[in-house]
Write a structure and sequence with these properties.
This protein has about 300 residues and is of the alpha/beta class. About 40% of the residues lie in helices and about 15% in strands.
Length: about 300
């Protein structure tokens, strides 16, 4: 499917309460156009629950269930098995959560569902912090970033640790399909969700989704920043289908400083911090290339 062929019907409707420029809202609006009406959604505590599913209003035009923070993988599993028992095996069960509900609090039920190869599609919209509860750091928060729990001051200067590599953790489960994508590269986004829609078994897609509120950037620059993440190498677009690993776009390797500049969460970083992050990008890209060669 090409962008111009996307259906007009909105299954995630206007009128929700997401912040201007929200990468999560952009992601879910488009992915629901791809998945279509024969979809059931499981969504735990996160920004998306608040802006799209707070009782008594809901932006989803498909069956939708709020679930506990830690059990999206378990609830999606139960829903899929119940539908199959009723003869509705063609219904897509979508579990969608932020990085806190995926990489941290929800990891145990997600890992268990992946290990069992449950026939569900799990999406992590990655805005790199617990945005809904006040911009606290998660394991997906990048090195150096300011959050309310990695403050900038005399002793601390942003997050001291590097971002958890969740896609590689999911690949280690030997599931049929794992991919990374971004709201800044919509055709890649479409291609991967179209593919995931057709595959049986466990599928995991991690979407890079800028958050103007938490990242402290201009609300009009979400797509530009998402593209910069790819071109600097901060975010790699790839997929692993039945063990075959493919890098979908080689970055220009624009200096990482160009990605950091528009974001207030990195404003405090010193030259030595930026150099440290640049070195991490280099090593990450080299590691991804090695995996691609090994799993070609």
């Amino acid at each position: 499917m090409k962008l111009k062929e996307m259906p007009d019907e909105e299954l995630f409707t206007r009128g929700h309460t997401a912040c201007a420029g929200c990468g999560g809202a952009i992601a879910v609006r488009n992915l629901m156009k791809i998945l279509g009406p024969n979809t059931v959604v499981q969504n735990p505590a996160c920004c998306m629950l608040v802006f799209g599913g707070t009782y008594p209003l809901v932006a989803w035009k498909v069956p939708y269930q709020d679930v506990a923070f830690e059990n999206t993988g378990a609830c999606a599993t139960g829903t899929k098995r119940a539908l199959k028992a009723r003869g509705k095996d063609d219904t897509i069960v979508l579990g969608i959560a932020g990085d806190g509900g995926t990489a941290d609090i929800g990891l145990q039920s997600l890992s268990a569902a992946a290990e069992r190869n449950e026939d569900i599609l799990y999406v992590m919209y990655d805005n790199e912090a617990y945005m809904n509860t006040g911009i606290q750091r998660s394991s997906s928060t990048p090195f150096g970033a300011w959050t309310t729990t990695t403050p900038v001051g005399k002793v601390k200067a942003g997050k001291a640790n590097f971002k958890k590599d969740m896609p590689q953790i999911m690949i280690a489960h030997n599931v049929p399909y794992v991919a990374t994508t971004s709201v800044g590269h919509i055709q890649d986004f479409i291609n991967k969700f179209e593919k995931a829609k057709r595959i049986k078994g466990f599928r995991y897609i991690q979407v890079f989704a800028p958050c103007p509120t938490g990242w402290r950037h201009d609300t009009a620059k979400s797509i530009e920043i998402a593209k910069l993440a790819v071109e600097t190498g901060m975010w790699t677009l790839y997929e692993c289908e039945n063990g075959k690993f493919t890098i979908n776009r080689k970055p220009k390797f624009t200096p990482v400083e160009e990605y950091l500049k528009p974001q207030g969460r990195f404003r405090h970083m010193k030259p030595e911090d930026i150099a440290k992050l640049q070195e991490w990008v280099k090593k990450k890209w080299e590691a991804d290339e090695k995996v691609a060669l090994a799993r070609a």
